[in-house]
Amino acid sequence: MKKKYLFLLCAVFLAILPAAAFAAEAAEGGIDVMKAYITLGILFAAAVLFFTEIIPLPVTAVLVPVALTMTGVIKAGPAFANWGDTTVILFMAMFIVGESIFKTGFADKVGEMTMRLSGGNEMKLLLLTIVVIGAMSSVLSNTGTVAVTMPMVIAMCRSSKIAPSKLLIPAAFASSLGGTITLIGTPPNGIVNAMLKSAAETAPEGLTIRAFGFFEFGKMGILLLLMGVLYYALIGHRLLIDTSKREKSKLDVEDAEASASLAASKAKRRTEKMFYSVAIFIFVVAIMVTEIMPLHVAAMFGVCLVVISGCLTMKEAYNAVDWQTIWLFAGMLSMSTAMAESGAAKLVAQTIVAKVSSPIAILAVVCLITALLTNFMSNTATAALMGPLAIPLAIQTGINPMPLAMGIALSASCCFLTPIATPPNTIVFGPGNYSFVDYVKAGWPIQLMSYIMFVTLIPLFWPL
After folding, report:
1. Phi-psi category of 80—alpha, beta or left, where left has phi over 0 and alpha has psi -120 to 50?
2. pLDDT digit string, tens, across residues 61-70
3. Most buried among 209, 271, 409, 420, using CB within 10 Å?
4. Are β-strands 27-28 and 31-32 bridged in parallel, bridged antiparallel, or unpaired?
């Protein structure tokens, strides 16, 4: 089916929903069946549009609260209130604070130090690259970390006579693993945390729900990064992909472009402000860890400081925000509200519980679906889609939603089978001269090990 016809189908589907909203309402077990099915229909339409990317992802996300309002599932106020959500503010602010680390050249220093420590040894260079990028990604943008370090990795490979393709996929995978360590490491963490916070406000008596702490993700995230390091140290290094024989001229062009990009970016670094940017970043993280003030307040304070100190200009601060993530995040949070208020979550819960009753089985299914989806669509969008299904499902079935939320966040970030699974995977695709199949070959062991860790370890940290 051509894209335009698929889009037409989805558009018609969304267009008939307002008419359906005026149909007679049926009540069954406390569920407004009509609104529940309309909500699920909107969720399905959003999933199709996310998967096909016929229209920009942020536009799809914004259409969700629009459709929910037009059909009368929820009112306009709650539907669009999420643009002021504290987690949205937190991510906007940390995009800016993190950008100051790159703009003042500190990230470049880290890359240069890695090169010196490796001494040109392939194994040392591989493991140091994974550790450094994983650590940086825990508190900085995964995409930004890979974009900044990729030219350095290529340069290090060339000077050590190592095919860049042997390090670029591990570097991309390391950024995904490292992002699972903290609340701000990757957008899915913030998405599920915001949904947990929202669910806690309406949780039934006897069910304790709370949002995750800043470093609480690290209980699993550190183990995941360690798994990645051990995998490449013991087995993975033997399976590294060498694409140097494929169209050498193309690789040379990519290398030249990467080197030119690195040289141009370094020329614009505000190195005299490096101390201030690092100090401010450490200060903000310290405040978040100690919870002296709310996370979003601490992050916004950091934004003010990096601009006042001259680490960033106001224009650079505006440009540092990944608005696609913000729109996706804020738009899809309305679905969580609709799933709860319409009874759609209860309807889904009843259906799944009739087939899968074991809490462990539910966790396994949720992680599996999330992992499969996120390899073919935005991990942010996947978390935004799965959260409104799984968290209310847990509440309706009387189990702790925190393990399911953690499973969604981690599964959405740990996606290694395709070049479109995450922005870092996509960034290294061209410079590494990879094919689609290369990602499957390189990623399936880590994908499988990650999934096993989710199902076995998450219930130990957050009992179901």
Report:
1. alpha
2. 889 899 999 9
3. 409
4. antiparallel
Burial class (CB in 10 A: 0-12, 13-18, 19+), 299: buried
With a pLDDT cut of 70, the percent of the chain lying above it is 81
Q: What is the dihedral of CA 385, 169, 180, 148, to 10 degrees?
A: -100
The H-or-E segment that residue 437 falls in is helix 436-461
Phi, psi of 28 (to 5 degrees): -145, 110
Q: What is the Cα–Cα distance from 182 to 220, expressed in whole angstroms?
A: 10
Neighbours of 24 (CB within 10 A): 5
The residue that leads in pLDDT, 77 or 335, is 77
* pLDDT for the residue numbered 215: 86
450 Cβ partners below 8 Å, 6+ apart? Answer: 224, 227, 371, 410, 411, 414, 416
Instruction: Identify the sign of the CA torsion 160, 165, 169, 170.
Output: negative
Please state the pTM of the whole predicted model.
Answer: 0.67
| Distance between CA atoms of residues 348 and 340, nearest Å | 11
For residues 313 and 65, the answer to whether their CB atoms sit within 8 Å is no
Phi first, then psi, for residue 38 (nearest 5°) are -65, -45
Please give the Cα distance from 58 to 332 (Å, whole number). Answer: 10
Whether 145 contacts 136, CB under 8 Å: yes
For residues 96-108, average pLDDT: 80
Phi, psi angle pair for 255, to nearest 5°: -60, -45
> Which of 431, 430, 442 has its CA nearest to residue 151?
431
- CB-neighbour burial class of residue 241 (10 A; exposed 0-12, middle 13-18, buried 19+): buried
R_g of the chain computed on alpha carbons = 22
Measured distance CA(201)–CA(325) in Å, rounded: 25
Res 402 pLDDT > 60: yes
